[in-house]
Amino acid sequence: MRRVLLGDVCRFEYGKSLPGKTRTPGPVHVFGSNGTVGTHISGYTNGQTIVVGRKGSIGEIHLSDESCWPIDTTYFIDETCTDCVLEWLAYTLRYLNLGNLNKASGVPGLNRDDAYAQLVVLPATKEEQRQIAARLKAQLAEVETARQAAQAQGKETDALIAAVYRETFRGIVPVAEPKSVEAAPSGWVWHKLTDLARLESGHTPSRSRPDWWDGDISWVSLTEIRALDGLWVESTQIRTNEAGIANSSARLLPRGTVCFSRTASVGFVTILARPMATSQDFANWVCGQDLNPEYLMYALIRSRTELRVIATGATHKTIYMPALESFRLCAPPRSEQKRIVSALKEKLNCFEQIHSALKQQQSELALLPQKILAQAFDLQGDSHD
Predict the structure, then answer these.
(1) Which residue of 90, 91, 185, 190 has the smallest Cβ count within 10 Å?
(2) Rg value, the chain, Cα
């Protein structure tokens, strides 16, 4: 084995433009930087081809087993561009992480001269290249199988969580418009939500006044709501101050206020753990003595899919105030709400542990392919030295 420059073992050719309107659907794959973007009746390359992202998703590597059509946002390498085994070369290119070579200030772009300057370890024979490629293919296939299994476990866990919510709320959607209410379970009653909680909107202090920001009052916004979903929020990254509140329609809402995102990211819910303000993208319910805030939060989460259907708008989907004011809530007495919340939280905590373990596993699996490539090619380099 010997160390050589990538430019000494292959040549990057430019892909060719093929707009969608000029394509005739056929057996040949058309490739962009992200992978297959369509088909055509004829190919532009000779046989097996490596496609390299040149613009946008730069450095992305795709291997086509047959002739294909790489468009003009890509480079390609086929049998006319190298004497190497293409499968081995594709793994080598993935190992090099060509995406790190971006120097463009706007749309990411890959300069092939920068790629050519990268060092690679070239096996002495094509047979060695084939053996390395076959070994890597088998190892990476095992990783992909494990990744798909972890993904399937995640979906099964999500399905179980949904089933727990359905069971908790006796099979009904507990927050609904008047026309959608179902028969209440025994001992439960449908209420107009605004009879149990005061509905408040949020507001954004002027962004042109920096002196109204970075203060000591947390301000809940869509930027953070996904991370806060289903939780009590202690503080936020974006903060306003007393002047921002005083000079806008924003209101300081009390602890226990249930905040429901009603615009763009519709349906996410959090509860204020201390007095805070929110943006106008939220409907905020200040619960009265007959409504447990956590019961309302979980009821909204259970109803999320159905409530999202209510959202309207061409650019950003929104649930408008008239619809929010009409919401009905099905609930038992407050003492029973507390028991329901306690039992649900215990189950959700168990699922959260499973989710955390799966998330950690998926993170490790996402890093494993590059580790396998690094191990394979680093070992080649060590044997040379």
Answers:
(1) 185
(2) 28
Pairing verdict, β 213-220 and 239-240: antiparallel
Q: pLDDT grade, residue 294 (50/70/90)?
A: very high
Per-residue pLDDT tens digits for 323-335: 999 999 999 999 9
DSSP output for 237-268:
SSEE-HHHHHTSS---BPTT-EEEE-BSSTT-
Pairing, β 277-278 against β 239-240? unpaired
pTM, entire model: 0.76
Pairing of strands 119-122, 2-5: antiparallel
In terms of C-beta distances under 8 Å and separation of at least 24 residues, what long-range contacts does 310-314 make, across chains too?
310/177, 311/262, 311/266
Residues 97, 93: Cα–Cα separation, whole Å:
7
3-state helix, strand, coil in the chain (%, to 5): 45, 25, 35
Pairing of strands 74-77, 189-192: unpaired
Q: Kindly report, residue by residue over 313-365, the tens digit of the pLDDT.
A: 988 899 999 999 999 999 999 999 999 999 999 999 999 899 889 989 999 99
- Tell me the C-alpha to C-alpha distance, in Å, between residue 263 and each of 202, 293, 368: 12, 21, 38
Nearest CA among 134, 32, 141 for reference residue 87: 134
